[in-house]
């Protein structure tokens, strides 16, 4: 669940929303580059590809119906698991 009040509605960075509207109205579905990990995924984002910044590089995220209501940052991990040491014998 979100900590944001229901009457406020979901938060989406205005600049990101403008980029999404430009891509949809343009007809060509290009990748949208964003640093806004805190933006909520809206139903009109479905089918679009976002490049979400994880602090070091951009992670490509293709949005589907199950992602609606979640944050963009949830799909771009910031930590890389390299395993539990070297297990050679």
Automatic annotation (TrEMBL):
Keyword RNA-binding: yes
Keyword Ion transport in record: no
A GO CC term assigned to this protein in UniProt: small ribosomal subunit
Domain of life: Bacteria
GO BP, one annotated term: translation
Keywords noted in UniProt: Ribonucleoprotein, Ribosomal protein, RNA-binding, rRNA-binding
Pfam families xref list: Ribosomal_S19
UniProt xrefs under InterPro entries: Ribosomal_uS19, Ribosomal_uS19_bac-type, Ribosomal_uS19_CS, Ribosomal_uS19_SF
Molecular functions (GO terms): rRNA binding; structural constituent of ribosome
Function: Protein S19 forms a complex with S13 that binds strongly to the 16S ribosomal RNA.
Family stated for the protein in its record: Belongs to the universal ribosomal protein uS19 family.
Protein name as annotated: Small ribosomal subunit protein uS19
Organism of this sequence: Candidatus Aquarickettsia rohweri
Phylogenetic placement of the source organism: Bacteria, Pseudomonadati, Pseudomonadota, Alphaproteobacteria, Rickettsiales
